[in-house]
Design a protein that fits this description.
The protein is α/β, with parallel strands linked by helices. The protein contains ten helices and 16 strands. The protein folds into two domains: 153 residues, Quinone Oxidoreductase, Chain A, domain 1 (Alpha-Beta Complex), CATH 3.90.180; 176 residues, Rossmann fold (3-Layer(aba) Sandwich), CATH 3.40.50.720. Helix 3 crosses helix 9. The radius of gyration is 20 Å and the shape is globular.
């Protein structure tokens, strides 16, 4: 029987253990996947701790992101483009209880994993990548915009920042000083968290935008090392992060000249400090999005990121960018399944950039 991470009560990472679970078979529109990597997310910890209430019976499983190999396919299971899913396909996506050796997933929440995308990166992409896409559908940015990203070195923040950069926006990101070189290497202007943030951001925004990118430090590259994008991945053939249905009326045109030298949009991926800075800098609340500061977002009237853009087609588009070397998602640490408690402890206490991943 396959094993999975389980917990019998809410609490800290210490409540987690590894136990056997049923060897379920896929139903209609489903697939069974042998999991090779499962990314951890703050949501998983909030659910396990009881911060986010759940009526699910104990023992509960944990996790959502995964990448692996298809072992069995239910009737009618096809990829987002209509291609039938087959045993042996390499896939990535989302499924409940993905921190496990085997998982049952819906075909509507998986995409192919390109060979050029390392399995540990693919296994951490669904939540971070698609939440980032949702943020930029909620608050589109483009040429002439200056975007402030709170928590720019985290999983979501890194993807938001790079997608906004590629859309032509100037990006200022908050991060711990240890992560500033990584942000600079990706064309993101770093600044520290904490008191005086609005003043620091205003000073940065009023200065001249730096040009070009420098090589990413070796410690930040690993399996996601940046390479030049092949010509086949450029131009009109490249999948974009936001679906066509989410563009149109929400597409951002160039910001007016009057916006130059000031922040025009804010995405919170960390806490309320970026939102408070945005308010202090006069950013309208409809040009701000929150994914972490729940209470502050409600207090300030800031919208949550929409969810319609969280599709397997957009996941495939992000994977294409990673394969082409135009998007970086570092893996901060990886752990075997038996060390799941240590992995969550690292997730909930570390300021290392990128993702924490379980390798069952």
């Amino acid at each position: 029987m396959p094993r999975a991470a389980l917990y019998d009560r809410t609490g800290g990472p210490e409540v987690l253990y590894v136990g056997e679970v049923d060897d379920a078979q896929p139903g209609s529109g489903q697939l069974a996947v042998r999991v090779h990597a499962a990314g951890l997310n703050p949501f998983d910890g909030k659910l396990r701790s009881g911060f986010i209430p759940s009526e699910a019976p104990f023992p509960r499983r944990t996790g959502g992101d995964f990448a692996g190999t298809v072992e069995a396919v239910g009737e009618g299971a096809v990829f987002w483009d209509g291609t039938p899913i087959a045993v042996g396909d390499e896939v990535m996506g989302r499924a409940g209880g993905a921190v496990a050796e085997r998982v049952i997933a819906s075909a509507r929440e998986v995409a192919r994993r390109p060979d050029a995308v390392p399995v540990e990166v693919a296994g951490a992409l669904w939540v971070a990548g698609l939440t980032a896409v949702s943020c930029l559908v909620t608050v589109p940015v483009g040429a002439g915009d200056t975007l402030l990203v709170g928590g720019a070195a985290g999983g979501v923040g890194l993807v938001v920042s790079q997608l906004a950069r590629d859309a032509g926006a100037r990006v200022i990101g908050t991060a711990s000083p240890r992560n500033h070189d990584l942000l600079r290497s990706l064309g993101i202007e770093p600044t520290a968290y904490g008191e005086g943030l609005a003043e620091r951001v205003a000073t940065l925004a009023s200065g001249e935008k730096p040009t070009g990118r420098v090589a990413a430090p070796a410690s930040a590259q690993g399996p996601t090392e940046r390479v030049a994008a092949p010509a086949s991945a450029q131009g009109s053939t490249e999948r974009v992060a936001a679906p066509a249905s989410a563009q149109g009326s929400t597409e951002r045109v160039a910001a007016p000249a009057s916006a130059q030298g000031r922040v025009t949009a804010v995405v919170d991926c960390h806490g309320r400090d970026a939102l408070d800075a945005g308010i202090a800098l006069g950013v309208p609340v409809d040009r701000m999005a929150a994914i972490a500061a729940y209470a502050a977002g409600a207090e300030l009237g800031v919208q949550n990121a929409e969810r319609e853009a969280r599709t397997p087609e957009n996941l495939a588009g992000l994977a294409d960018r990673i394969a082409a070397g135009t998007l970086v998602l570092p893996v901060a640490a990886s752990f075997p399944l038996d060390e799941v408690a240590a992995a969550f402890t690292a997730l909930e206490s570390s300021h290392a950039p990128g993702k924490v991943v379980i390798l069952p």
